[in-house]
Design a protein that fits this description.
Helix content of chain B: 55-70%
Strand order of the largest sheet of chain A: 1-2
Distance between the termini of chain B: 62 Å
Structural class of chain A: mainly alpha
Number of helices of chain B: 14
Largest sheet of chain B: 2 strands, antiparallel
Order of helices and strands of chain B: HHHHEEHHHHEEEEEHEHHHEEHH
Strand order of the largest sheet of chain B: 1-2
Number of helices of chain A: 16
Shape of chain B: globular
Bound molecules: CIS-heme D hydroxychlorin gamma-spirolactone, protoporphyrin IX containing FE
Largest sheet of chain A: 2 strands, antiparallel
Order of helices and strands of chain A: HHHHHHHHHHHHHEEHHH
Distance between the termini of chain A: 72 Å
Number of strands of chain A: 2
Largest interface: A-B, 81 and 84 residues
Oligomer: heterodimer
Radius of gyration of chain B: 23 Å
Chain lengths: 370, 448
């Protein structure tokens, strides 16, 4: 097989970096919602406040990483975008509903007045949507990796297309549009995504917490999430072994077969152990770095295993790439964008991380006047 | 049961119509907030600070709904129109990618602006507000450039139905781009300014010397009036580009079935597609030729010059256009009245008639925007990319599209109702400050 040129690989790499940023930052915001749902004990309100304050100023910026992935995908790899959008219509639409409810409920709670009952209601909606959305994101990724999406796309394309798009002979709606993603493996990856996001969030929150008690709350939660990650990852591995037919193996098999597989696994394991050790030893900063590294390595492992495919078994990075001129321009746009963006993001996070006691908020600004 | 194609079109139209309301607020409100904040910093008048913070709160809600509904749109381009994205992604993805960066800047500095009142210096705070305003405008510019390409596609050649020789820069500089962008950006300021002015005019009608609403009305009109006055001129530029590049759309807008020289301008009326006439319109002789080509004897192509299967839905386009122009004329006239009152140094709130006229005009900008987009989008039918790709060929093969259409419609109805309720509570709680107490020496201390 001809390898793709350097340019498409570079852009696919940028997409992966954006997805990585989304998972590390946006993912943690979703994880925050999970801990809002699971807030318990006498400090339950304070836990929720801490989460809200940590997410408030940054979630909309974190969310744009996902949009960047989508626009890069349809600009640089249009056939891949079309294929994913056709086969994964249902889970993507459900994920969008989750995104809509999460974002709006969070904002309604923050700005929608101080009625306690209403606040509760929005809080609950925010928490539930935050929990469901990552599962759907993970399901989409798992479905692509298991080859089911690519195969369904071939079957959809094979049938002659009629106006009104009726279902093809021998196929049903569910065989083409549900079965490819509602598999034990894909759902397993969905749950794994949820556990990882919750793990990230709890680990980050130990650093944001204003006092020891809250910090310990989130330390315990982070350790519990780490255990969940371990169990689910193991389960997914077993499911993959049991359910993936040999012919459909490449991306998954690559995770054990290629030369980089062993070092990658070792590194991931090291990061995971490092994160847990740091949490046990209360080394908060180290825990944050190690947790982020662990999640990053898992994501890159998936990407490497799929290489050179975007949507296996057919669409490769090279085969789906837009013409050279488009890719060059996209790269220029990215370079200029990065020059504007990186200092701005640094500024935002610089203003708002740490020192949570001094939450800057316009209400305070107005209150202080009185 | 409606067909899948119709369901997809309806879902797209509904999602866009919903998103545009919030997007427009995201463009206009930062400007109002920045003006209010700068006035506070200059005069020390605490009411202006109050205004800036209250507007910021309302905007935060609307902005979040704009962000999530925009996310839905970028996915829907693929979920509903994979054929379109497959065809045009490489050609017209560029403005979307640039828009992505505009969103980033906007979201980052909105976070700084909303949450940074007492964390950064006053100057930095005002600058953050200005960046939010500029990047909101930039995102509108880029997305409308993408839409302009759909109206006047450039930057590629067709070979066996596939695009080759793709040039994304040429695809951004299409004939439709300048008029559409200009008209849309002005529309955003006119619509936001008018809705805010309308709300505060309404409050002043009830509570005549509430200084808070006086300030708010003034700031809103500073933005709304100039925009509404120039909007008909920019609409004229748009109409002339449509006349030149999309004759079928112009014919539908005007209910012009016959190709003729010296075509009349029709005001109102109902086009009858079967009989190919527009009835009950007031006709101004030579008006259309004059407006569209600046020559009373210019030849205007009618729908008879277009094959029947390529007609857009004439009645919808014609009526939507009439509605937009009527609303635009009203807003421009009221704005002229405001300018005259200001030139004569009359406080606006002294004239109840003027307050009433402004209050009535409040929602009109938003209605005109919906009507205008109906003209643009429905007038482009049956093409998704004008003259190149038919909408019917771009739709997803997935059946049962009526289900997502209904689901998202219900979701947006719910969201819309909640947002309206929260805004109602928000406005309802505005402070009551009699004019004589307004200049109390409060504010300077705060976020400095
Ligand atoms: C505040 C809103 C507003 C107001 C007062 C007006 N318009 Fe408008 N109009 C829009 C908001 C708008 C819009 C929603 O923003 C559109 C849709 C696409 C676009 O570029 O702008 C539009 C489209 C649009 C088009 C179609 C462009 C196309 O198909 O690409 C024409 C010809 C006009 N307008 C003309 C006018 C005229 C002659 C007006 C005179 C009063 C007018 N508009 C007032
Ligand atoms: C926000 C303001 C907009 C509104 C209210 C709007 C309205 C509409 C409407 C009413 C339709 C359905 C037309 C029909 O099927 O008869 C439509 C279709 C569509 N619009 Fe827009 N539009 C807007 C802006 C845009 C922009 C900026 C883009 C792209 C960059 C866009 C892309 C599309 C697409 C892809 C379709 C579906 C295909 C089609 O029906 O032609 N729209 N829109
Ligand atoms: C003429 C029509 C449009 C205008 C003027 C417009 C403008 C804007 C603006 C100003 C925002 C900032 C958020 C806000 O203020 O609430 C926004 C958000 C967004 N828009 Fe639109 N938009 C339009 C149509 C579209 C279309 C067709 C798409 C999708 C293809 C889209 C995708 C988005 C996305 C993804 C966001 C979220 C960005 C974020 O997370 O901050 N918009 N839009």
């Amino acid at each position: 097989m001809n390898g793709p040129g350097a340019l498409p690989i570079l852009l696919a790499g940028v997409m992966l970096v954006s997805l990585n940023a989304y998972v590390l930052m946006g993912g943690a915001d979703f994880g925050g919602g999970v801990w809002d749902l699971l807030a318990t004990g006498e400090r339950c309100d304070r836990q929720r406040d801490l989460i809200a304050h940590a997410i408030g100023p940054i979630w909309e910026a974190n969310h744009v990483w996902l949009i960047l992935v989508v626009v890069l995908l349809f600009t640089c790899f249009p056939p891949a975008f079309a294929t994913l959008a056709i086969v994964l219509h249902v889970p993507l639409a459900l994920m969008l509903i989750g995104i809509v409810l999460r974002g709006s409920a969070f904002t309604f709670r923050t700005y929608g007045g101080d009625e306690v009952a209403a606040q509760r209601r929005w809080g609950r909606m925010f928490a539930i949507a935050s929990t469901i959305t990552p599962v759907l994101l993970g399901i989409c990724i798992g479905a692509v990796a298991s080859l089911r999406v690519g195969e369904a796309a071939q079957r959809i394309a094979a049938a002659p297309r009629a106006m009104g798009a009726e279902v093809r002979v021998g196929e049903s709606f569910s065989s083409l549009y549900i079965a490819p993603w509602l598999t034990p493996f894909a759902v397993g990856v969905g749950l794994l995504a949820l556990a990882l996001f919750a793990f990230l969030a709890a680990t980050y929150l130990t650093l944001e917490a204003p006092d020891e008690e809250l910090r310990e709350d989130f330390r315990r939660r982070a350790l519990a999430a780490a255990a969940a990650v371990f169990v689910i990852a193991f389960g997914v591995l077993i499911v993959a072994r049991l359910t993936t037919p040999p012919r459909g193996a490449p991306p998954l098999a690559a995770l054990t077969a290629r030369w980089w597989a062993l070092p990658l696994h070792l590194l991931t394991g090291l990061a995971a152990i490092g994160a847990i050790w740091a949490l046990v030893a209360r080394r908060w900063r180290l825990a944050r770095v190690a947790a982020a590294a662990q999640v990053t390595l898992i994501l890159w492992g998936w990407a490497l295993a799929q290489y050179p495919y975007l949507v296996p078994p057919e669409l490769t990075i090279g085969g789906a790439a837009a013409p050279r001129r488009t890719l060059v321009l996209a790269l220029w746009a990215l370079a200029i964008g990065a020059v504007l963006l990186i200092p701005s993001l640094a500024y935002l996070f610089g203003i708002f991380t740490g020192a949570p006691q001094a939450f800057g908020h316009m209400d305070r600004a107005v209150e202080r006047r009185e | 049961m409606i067909s899948d194609l119709l369901a997809a079109r309806s879902q797209m139209a509904m999602s866009l119509a919903f998103h545009i309301l919030f997007a427009v607020v995201g463009i206009g409100m930062p400007v109002l907030m920045v003006i209010a904040e700068m006035r506070w910093r200059r005069t020390g008048d605490a009411l202006h600070l109050e205004l800036a913070t209250r507007w910021a709160k309302g905007t935060a809600i609307l902005f979040a709904v704009g962000a999530v509904s925009g996310t839905v749109l970028s996915f829907e381009l693929g979920l509903l129109w994979p054929g379109f994205m497959h065809f045009s992604g490489a050609i017209v993805g560029m403005p979307f990618a640039l828009e992505g960066f505009a969103f980033f800047t906007e979201a980052i500095f909105l976070g700084v602006y909303l949450y940074g009142w007492d964390r950064i210096s006053p100057r930095a705070h005002v600058i953050a507000g200005m960046i939010v305003a500029a990047s909101g405008t930039a995102s509108a510019v880029f997305v409308v450039i993408a839409n302009a390409w759909m109206n006047t596609p450039r930057g590629f050649r067709l070979e066996d139905g596939r695009p080759v020789a793709i040039d994304p820069v040429a695809a951004m500089l299409t004939p439709a781009a300048f008029p559409e962008v200009l008209h849309m950006v002005i529309a955003a300021f006119a619509a936001t300014g008018f809705i805010v002015a309308g709300i505060h005019a309404l409050m002043l009608l009830r509570d005549r010397d509430n200084a808070f609403h006086h300030r708010a009305l003034t700031v809103a009109l500073i933005v709304a009036a100039p925009a509404a006055i120039v909007q008909p001129l920019s609409g004229d530029i748009s109409a002339r580009y449509v006349a030149r590049w999309q004759p079928a759309k112009l014919a539908a807008m005007e209910g012009q079935f016959r190709t003729e020289r010296g075509a009349p301008l029709r005001i109102g009326g109902f086009p009858d597609e079967r009989a190919r006439v527009t009835r009950h319109a007031i006709e101004i002789p030579y008006g259309l030729s004059l407006l569209a080509f600046h020559d009373p004897h210019a030849l205007v192509k009618g729908l008879d010059a277009v094959p029947r299967e390529n007609w857009p839905p004439v009645r919808i386009v014609h009526i939507a256009f009439q509605v937009m122009v009527a609303l635009g004329t009203y807003m421009a006239l009221v704005s002229l009245w405001v300018v005259i009152a200001a030139l004569r140094r009359r406080p606006i709130a002294d004239s109840r008639a003027l307050l009433r006229a402004i209050a009535i005009g409040g929602p009109m900008g938003f209605l005109a925007i919906e009507a205008g987009w109906t003209v643009t989008e429905v007038g482009r039918q049956p093409w998704i990319v004008y003259g190149v790709l038919r909408t019917a060929d771009a739709v997803t093969p997935m059946p049962g599209l009526v289900v997502p259409f209904i689901t998202f419609t219900l979701l947006y109805c719910l969201l819309g109702a909640i947002v309206l309720w929260l805004l109602y509570l928000h406005v309802h709680r505005s402070p009551r400050v009699p004019e004589r107490d307004a200049m109390a020496p409060a504010a300077r201390r705060i976020p400095a």
